[in-house]
Amino acid sequence: MQVQLNGEPFELADGASVADLVSALGGDPRGIAIERNLEIIPKSQHGKVMLEEGDRLEVVQFVGGG
Amino acid sequence: MTDDTLIIAGRAFTSRLIIGTGKYASYAQNAEAARAAGAEMVTVALRRVNLSNPDEDRLTDHVSPDEFTYLPNTAGCYTADEAVRTLRLAREAGGWDLVKLEVLADQKTLYPDMEATLEAAKALVADGFQVMVYCSDDPVYARKLEDAGCCAIMPLGSLIGSGLGIQNPLNIRLIVEQSRVPVIVDAGVGTASDAAVAMEIGCDGVLMNTAIAEAQDPIRMARAMKHAVIAGREAYLAGRMSKKRYADPSSPLAGLI
């Protein structure tokens, strides 16, 4: 299936969870936050929340800033 | 020096200098500057993970949240909703509820939109955040932000990144006098004397980024700012002499030959 990840098309296996997405991105959920269709998915829910075709996902982290 | 702790939202800080983590040549230089400044708190931004280069240098590897208190900001947000959304993500990413709120009005001045800032502050306080708020030097809005529950009032000295110093010391002083929470000058400091001026007015701290990051020698400037903030604070606590229009000799008049 295809989702929108940080504004770009991204392919994931059908039935993938948020945790599967984290694995696809390197596997370390520390220091990142994930928003699915404008709703934050807490780390404790990563394994339970299933993604769906067309989901709009944002994955953010801390960077330098003033 | 006597024990002089800065308390923000129940957290104690020895350093009164907060620095940003933007515009540095590298995160490594950033970390060195933060240590040279004696900073205990650093502002950080939240941005999309770079999917095309997952191995790029990460802020957290150099300026560690174990060493510095992270203060997530909302730089780049122009509406209250964007700012609240950003800080909720920051809380999920790092687990921290102490945040720096800024809602900007336009790109040319990066001046705070105070109506939207107040709206966002109320929403964040209701959501359990400890809000340090970037604001104009308007004492009326500063009071409204404090009444809304903000834990630190952070008026601009002058425009973000301008290095023009404290342009309206009278307003900053009014805000200092009326506030029951810490007042921290945020933005505008260009060099050490600007930081000292802010502290001599009675501010509880100074937040800066560009003044250090864009100095020819950022590490040395970080050190200068550390001394300036300490000097200004000590001068404020010491209580300056009164100003006089004419000379007052320092040597005794009696016993002149």
Short description:
The complex is a heterodimer of chains A (66) and B (257). Chain A has 66 residues and is mainly β.
How would you explain this protein's 3D organization?
The complex is a heterodimer of chains A (66) and B (257). Chain A has one domain: Beta-grasp domain (Ubiquitin-like (UB roll), Roll), CATH 3.10.20. A five-stranded mixed beta sheet of chain A has the order 2-1-5-3-4, with no helix packed on it. The model of chain A has no long low-confidence stretch (mean pLDDT 92). Chain A is mainly β. The longest helix of chain A has 7 residues, at 18-24. Chain A has one helix at residues 18-24, and strands at 2-5, 8-11, 32-36, 39-40, 56-64. Chain A is globular, with a radius of gyration of 11 Å. The N and C termini of chain A lie far apart (38 Å). Chain B is an alpha/beta fold. Helices cover 37% and strands 16% of the residues of chain B. Chain B contains nine helices and ten strands. In chain B, the strands form four sheets. In chain B, strands 3-10-9 form a three-stranded parallel beta sheet. In chain B, strands 6-7-8 form a three-stranded parallel beta sheet, covered by helices on one side. In chain B, helix 1 (27-36) runs parallel beside helix 9 and helix 7 (192-201) packs parallel to helix 9 (218-238). The N and C termini of chain B lie far apart (41 Å). The mean pLDDT of chain B is 95. Strand 5 of chain A pairs antiparallel with strand 4 of chain B.
What is the CATH homologous superfamily assignment of chain A?
Beta-grasp domain
Q: Helix- and strand-based class of chain A?
A: mainly beta
Classify the fold: give the CATH topology of chain A: Ubiquitin-like (UB roll)
Overall 3D shape of chain A = globular
Largest inter-chain contact set: A-B, 25 and 35 residues
Q: Helicity level of chain B, as a percent range? A: 25-40%
Structural class of chain B, by secondary structure, is alpha/beta
Oligomer: heterodimer
